[in-house]
Batch of 2 targets.
Target 1
Amino acid sequence: MIITWSDILSIGHDTIDREHKYILDTVTRLYLIEVDNKSKDESVMLFGEMIDLIVSHFHNEEAVMRINRYPNTDHHIELHSELFSRLTDILYLLETGSDRVAHELVQCIDDWAHLHILVQDRMIVDYLEANHL
Ligand SMILES: [Fe+2]
Ligand SMILES: [Fe+2]
């Protein structure tokens, strides 16, 4: 089952939390369409919506890091690129009619929630708080 938004995933930054929630809500909708084997067109459309939200979120988060001179910014941006290329691979699976889309999406979003949001993104907020920014 795909991870859904809950307060456990909140890192204490209103804008970032809200964007994470929108993304996870969209991923959940996409996952449900995939497991129900509904329409491929709908999946591709929703995948595009999810990618747009993620690109815009990365952009905003990277701006927060740069403006506040977060020391780990370059590494964090690399992690965003890695996640993006993983999603591109999943989009390819979707477009080629693979039955592994739901499985790969679960893995990818689980890693993103537990390893990225709760570790890397939280480090940004810890830095902002520690430096009264
Ligand atoms: Fe991030
Ligand atoms: Fe994030």
Target 2
Amino acid sequence: MESPEADHQASLRLRGQAEIWRHMFAFVDSLALKCAIELQIPDIIHSHGAGRPITLSQIISCIDNAPSPDISYLERIMRLLVRRNIFSIDHPSDGGEPLYGLTHSSRWLVNGSDEYTNLSSLYLIETHAYLVGSWNFLSPSVKEGSMAFEKAFGKRSVWDLASQDNRFNKLFNDGMACTGRILIREMVAGYKDGFDCLRSLVDVGGGIGGMISEIVKSYPHIKGINFDLPHVIATAPVYDGVSHIAGDMFHQIPNADALLLKWVLHNWDDEACAKILKNCRKAIAKEIGKLIIVDVVLQPDGNELFDDAGFASDLQMMVNTLGGKERTELQWKKLLEEGGVVIAPTNPEYSISELTHQIQLTRPTIAFATSHTSHKLPLNLRTILIDSLEFSTLFTQHSGGESDVVVNQSDIAAILYSSGTTDGFDTVRSLVDVGGGTGGAIAEIVKTYPHIKGINFDLPHFVATAPDYDGVSHVGGNMFESIPNADAVFMKCILHDWGDEDRVKI
Ligand SMILES: C[S@@+](CC[C@H](N)C(=O)[O-])C[C@H]1O[C@@H](n2cnc3c(N)ncnc32)[C@H](O)[C@@H]1O
């Protein structure tokens, strides 16, 4: 019997390991949901089922441009997303096909809902291959003090990339525009007085003008100006009460009573922000001039719903902009003061609390997939074959032998296939690790059970680089042709790499 303290420590170790697995697979959650969005599954459920759950066959029949759809792939993707509470599943009592529905999360990914804004395009841009690709350069950028984005794409910014790639440009602008609708609802409710006194407003770096058009819709007395780079303005739709102006905010910003900067300053380092703010000061009316900044305020000890997203977004800025960052309230104050913006807490026109307020309003627009992967897969060598329970059936059906399903004390599904005894390693004289890589696992087994003759079996190029281990011989070959003889075969995470037909051959 282990002591309670030893048990506690073992449990902490296991939890720690589970946490690492969760992080390792966090991208799976994020990209599985991206796939569901690309296939428009939230929209399909919303429109086809009029909001009611529908079957997988109904979903798949509505997917556009799918000449030979694979329902088993989709079923597995949905299984994960149901676990993550992105979709719901109902199992009808009559044994009919399961029904998939929307949840409070996936409703944020549909078109045409009154209560939820569609964040799909924002999700697709934040997980776009360009933006995700530059993350591979994060550690070199830390070591060399260089920009990850430049390492990935050369000396250019994300805006340069958008100007050269029309599809990316459209996706980026749509992604940004969709957040305007959420924000304006909150602004209309909470910032009414702020707009009442304005005659003109420029949205600086306003993208295709979604935000300013929503403001002008609610405050038709305001003359709206959407200001952005030429390649963005070229694709902007026409909106009543909004004129589009192409230009460069580092050069000159159109004059108006007030300027709006939403998610602009966080793209730039302090030096670049100072230049933007200087041009803002020149552009706003002296008497009632106002700068409305909508950005994240990082809360270092914050435990609110979107605080984590702020820190994730900070790293997204670090990786995908040339010096951008999210800022704490202190950093904002410093930046604005140095940029010559008067922050008078008593004057709501410029108070930092107003800034904070605006920022809080924008928080719900930050959509990042959070993952709750709870993958239990301890590296427990007491099991002979670690994979999943479903193989048990496969073995008994196709091998003519017996299969014992052992659930060990960590609730891990482990299958011990044997033609006779199932006593574990004690009775095994020779053991071949099929697909054993460079032999690390079999070497550990042989260290603990030195009576076992260990054989590490893998493709020749793997075995060629394998180190020498006492008691282990390396054999190069192909498991689909033949496997070296031994008392027992060990396969760790092999069968799950293959389809059923190949598993049967193995
Ligand atoms: C993160 S996006 C925010 C867009 C929009 N404000 C929103 O939140 O929906 C930053 C915007 O700044 C624009 N931008 C970048 N450099 C600029 C420049 N030098 N002058 C004007 N706009 C610029 C980009 O084209 C992009 O539309």
